[in-house]
Amino acid sequence: MESRVLILAPHGRDAQVIQSVLRSDKIDCLICPDAASLMAELKVAAGTVILTEEVLAHGLAESVSEYLAQQPAWSDFPFVVLATRQSSRRSAGAAASLQELGNLVLLERPVNPETLVSAARSALRGRTRQYASRRHLTDIEAAKQTVEQLNAELESRIVARTSDLAGANDRLTREIADRERIQSKVVQSQKLEAIGRLTGGIAHDFNNLLHAVSLNLQLIMRMAADKRVGDYARRAKDSVDRGARLTAQLLSFARAQSLLPRMHDVNAMVRNLQELIEVSVGSKVQVQMDLCEGEAHALLDGAQLEMALLNMAVNSRDAMRDGGTLIIRTRLLHASNGRHQLQISVQDTGSGIPEAIQAKVFDPFFTTKADGEGTGLGLSQVYGFARQSGGSAELHSSEGQGTTVTLQFPLAEHSGQGDEASLPEAGANHNGDQNTDSRTEVLVVEDDEAVRQGIAEGLRLLNYSVREACDGESGLHELRRHMPDLLMADYLMPGMNGAEFIVAAREIYPQIPVLVATGYADMAEVEKLVGTQSILKKPFDLETLNAAVGQELARGRVRARA
């Protein structure tokens, strides 16, 4: 039945002639007297249909189109159409009827018997391949059903035979989940370590560029006689400062940084960060500020606080896919025991967090986002920063009601004299009663010429005497000539890095004050030698440079007296 040829040629003796030609080649065929009988036989089974073109114009095309539309995915039924010789192009309707047939061989009458047989054989071979595909799919489905049946039987047997081991099975499941979670953390840690190494080197070079631009802009601001030039330089420096903040924020994603706590007015910081937050959350989210009156001071690392606020804002944005409101609040909490607190909260109107997982939100690498949409480090960084700063982090959320993350820090009293009020005067003599007419000398060791010149010019402007060296070997040569009052060195340099240079320098002068100026992120090696207080992160301005040099010289005098 599946290899037979159906014939529809109702005019004259066409059907009998076609049948005679096919049977002479031992091809099984059946003449259908009309379109209805053809459609009925098609639903039974057939290998191909041979029909004359004129029957398409009498309603057959529509019936065939419905049949073809309902055929399964493996089927592409073939037709052989005997066309009448055309004296002109077919009408659009006739051409469309032919096109509806899809898998079509068109033979122009009169047809050579051998050509007709060849066309029929070709169509039957194609249909045979389709039936083979169907059987292959049927075999696959049968195998699938068999496998599913076997799986069901196996599962039933396992359940029946292991009911008494349910407790052990639960423990095993938990152990497997824990192992997968640990493996995932290891992979994430390795990924972040690689990112940290890459961004650390890039940040060093980028911060050197920002640093050279920043210091030279400050020099222009101080020396420009034309007020407009100073204004231009000031606006340019503001852009450099924003670039430096962005670099620091990128670095904090890659690796943990040592905190450099300083006195900050948190309200001022939040206001300065508002524009960046608005850009980060996008136009669908409305950002509102609800800050307490006056200043709110805390002793913390400003860059890390900015990063924490950005992390929380981005999390809130992701929870408000269709937009919403983000509110940043600051509050002063006064306690009777005198331990006053500064509270900073970020509240959104997003989807909220299920209660079952709220206890895990501060865990490293825990995330509710899809793969590739988050590292799971955002809130863990926020929590770690708050705890390391002597504060706390809490989260409150209800599904459909939004989320609020609250940071709390000890409130600090501010003298109002500025962070550097107690620092030694720039360029003053720091050598006691000796050589009261000489200026303090700083040896600057930096491989980047533009950065080195910028630092040297800034120090001279601050009334320091300066010597310069382009690498560690040159720096050691300058040290052997005579000891400066302060050694200021970069970290990433050719030949020997800053840590190696400091070790070699202290073999010559064990008590020499050292200040490391660098844009590199991973400073653990240097911190072991000089401590975080003796690290000056690039890019920095003249005021920061002046304060750092003065503080390091003061620490040097304390060590010398001890």
State the main characteristics:
single chain; 562 residues; alpha/beta; Rossmann fold; Heat Shock Protein 90; five-stranded mixed β-sheet; 50% helix; elongated
Number of helices: 15
CATH superfamily of the largest domain: Histidine kinase-like ATPase, C-terminal domain
State the name of the first-level CATH class of the largest domain. Alpha Beta
Strand percentage lies at 15-25%
What is the number of independent domains?
3
Shape estimate: elongated
Fraction of residues in helices? Answer: 40-55%
Give me the side-by-side strand order of the main sheet. 2-1-3-4-5
Give a written overview of the molecule.
The protein has 562 residues and is an alpha/beta fold. The protein has three domains: 5-134, Rossmann fold; 256-415, Histidine kinase-like ATPase, C-terminal domain (Heat Shock Protein 90); 441-561, 3-Layer(aba) Sandwich (Rossmann fold). The protein is 50% helix and 17% strand. The strands form four sheets. A five-stranded parallel beta sheet has the order 2-1-3-4-5, sandwiched between helices. Strands 7-9-10-12-11 form a five-stranded mixed beta sheet. A five-stranded parallel beta sheet has the order 14-13-15-16-17, with helices on both faces. The longest helix has 58 residues, at 166-223. The protein starts with a strand and ends with a helix. The model is unreliable at 417-437 (pLDDT under 50).
Write the layout of secondary structure elements.
Elements: E1 5-8, H1 14-24, E2 29-31, H2 35-44, E3 48-52, H3 60-70, E4 78-83, H4 92-100, E5 103-108, H5 113-161, H6 166-223, H7 227-254, E6 262-265, H8 266-281, E7 285-290, E8 297-300, H9 302-319, E9 324-333, E10 341-348, H10 378-388, E11 392-398, E12 402-410, E13 441-445, H11 449-461, E14 465-469, H12 472-481, E15 486-489, H13 498-508, E16 514-518, H14 524-530, E17 535-537, H15 542-561
Parallel strand pairs: 1-2, 1-3, 3-4, 4-5, 7-9, 13-14, 13-15, 15-16, 16-17
Antiparallel strand pairs: 6-8, 9-10, 10-12, 11-12
Helix pairs in contact: 6-7, 6-11, 7-9, 8-9, 9-10, 12-13
